[in-house]
Structure formats: structure tokens, C-alpha cells
Amino acid sequence: MSGPIIDTNVFLGRWPFRRLPLDEAPLLAKALRERGVEQAWAGSFDALLHHDVDGVNGRLAALCQRTDEKLFLPIGTVNPALPDWEEDLRRCQEKYRMLGIRVFPNYHQYAVNAPSFVKFLKLATERGMFVQLAVSMEDERTQHPLVQVPHVDLAPLVDVLKATPGVRLQLLNAFRSLRPDLLLKLVSAAHVSVEIATLEGVAGIEELLKQVPVERLMFGSLAPLFYFEAAALKLKESKLSEAQATAICRGNAVQFLKR
User: Which among 97, 34, 44, 20 is positioned nearest to 71, based on CA atoms?
Assistant: First the structure.
């Protein structure tokens, strides 16, 4: 591992379908610190199924602050399919001082070209906030039979991004379903980044860098749903230069926050 890490994809709270190791915030904070993480962008598992989005965001902000506010960067949630989501967006920035929003189109049941989502992207961009879009959360083979959640269809997003100048978007958990040709279109359409939590295959990062500029790639673990070490191993099994490893582990995330 090359220097301190910014993990752009962690969650706090309880996964709705089973208990996880490290699903207590202090335990997760300790584990991340011990593994060299200096900042973790944290969403809430409650955001997947709760309708009281402002309650979710308020609890997340308070939990990050009282656990380790220098480590956890709270990332709010907005559900554009619910009434008054614009107020949730406003509170995320003005009340909870959040820099970004994490969205779940599959759990919240809207398409990425739905008018309300297109409006959300525009308003978030106007506010200078970045957006993280979770393409999936759990392997479809292990999902509860009563809660089968498909991957997000990203194909319509290309035209949406072209019509949203200045948008900053990071795709989370994308590689189980994202085709290489579509990834190239998305990266070319706007400032779109991806993280590595669900990237599989031998030398996966090395192969990905043949298609995607290194500045669009960030470290993400999906902890505690995934083991942090799984993401760390992906860095070790690919032949990366010191500059590439540093950019993926930290530098690209720093630049993403500054834009």
C-alpha cells in the first residue's frame, strides 16, 4: 500500500439482512485506522429502505461526528422519487455540512433518466456537491428472496451526463454489471469516476487502466459489507507504479473533492 488511504465507499449502521463484523462504528473506525485509512466517505445502510431520509441523514452526521469526525466524511442520501426531496438536499448541505450525496436508484425504484433524478443531478451540481451512485449492493445470488434488487441500468445515464455540465459523479459497486464499452462512454461524457470494491479478475486494476485514465479510479472497499482486505489485495496483485498507486489510494479522491 502506498501512503495513507482515502476509502471512498464505506457504510455505517446495520445491513438490513444480517449482522456484519465491524457494523459498530467505533469498531469499523479502529479497523480502518489500523489499515492506514485517513478518511472514509461514509453512507448509511438505513438509506436503502427508510422513507424518513432526513432522519437517516441526521443520524449519520451525528454518528460520524461522535465516533471519529476526522475519519468519517458523512455522505447524505436523497431519494428523488419521494416528495420534497429538494428539502433533503438543502439540509444535507446547509444543516449537516455534507459535501456529497449517495443515491440508490435500484432500491428507490427510479430510472437514471427519470425527470426527478435529472433535476436532482442538476441541483446537486449547482450546489457544488458530488454524487455517488450505487449500481448494486449485494450479489444477486445472496439476496433475500423477498428483496430481489436488480443492478442499475446505466445506459440512459450517458445522455443525462452530457446535459449536466460540471457534474461530479462516482459510480460505486459498478463492476458486476458495467460493460467496458458503457464505462468508456460514461467516462467520456462527464467527470465520472469509479472505485474498485467490486472489481474482480487477476490484475483487475492493471487491466482496467488500459481502458480508463488512472485519474478516474479511486479506492473503495464497501466495508463492512465486504472485507477491507479484498480491496487492498487488488492493489497488490496489479503491477502499479508508485504514482498510480498513490493516485488511486488518495490523490484522485483529494482532487475529486476540490473540483
Answer: 34
176 within 8 A of 143, measured Cβ to Cβ:
no
Q: What is the reported pLDDT for 140?
A: 87
Amino acid at 234: K
Is it the case that residue 1 has pLDDT exceeding 60?
Answer: no
Under 8 Å between Cβ of 134 and 172: yes
Q: What is the 3 state secondary structure string of the chain?
A: CCCCEEEEEEEECCCCCCCCCCCCHHHHHHHHHHCCEEEEEEEEHHHHCCCCHHHHHHHHHHHHHHHHCCCEEECEECCCCCCCHHHHHHHHHHCCCCCEEEECHHHHCCCCCCHHHHHHHHHHHHCCCEEEEECCCCCHHHCCCCCCCCCCCCCCHHHHHHCCCCCEEEEECCCCCCCHHHHHHHHHHCEEEEECCCCCCCCHHHHHCCCCCHHHEECCCCECCCCHHHHHHHHHHCCCCHHHHHHHHHHHHHHHHHC
As given in the structure block, the three cell numbers for residue 250 are: 488518495
pLDDT at 16: 95
Residue range 114-159, pLDDT digits in tens: 999 999 999 999 999 999 999 999 988 999 999 999 999 999 999 9
Do you know the residue count of the chain? 259
Rounded CA separation 126/253 (Å) = 20
- 216-253 pLDDT, tens digit each: 999 999 999 999 999 999 999 999 999 999 999 999 99
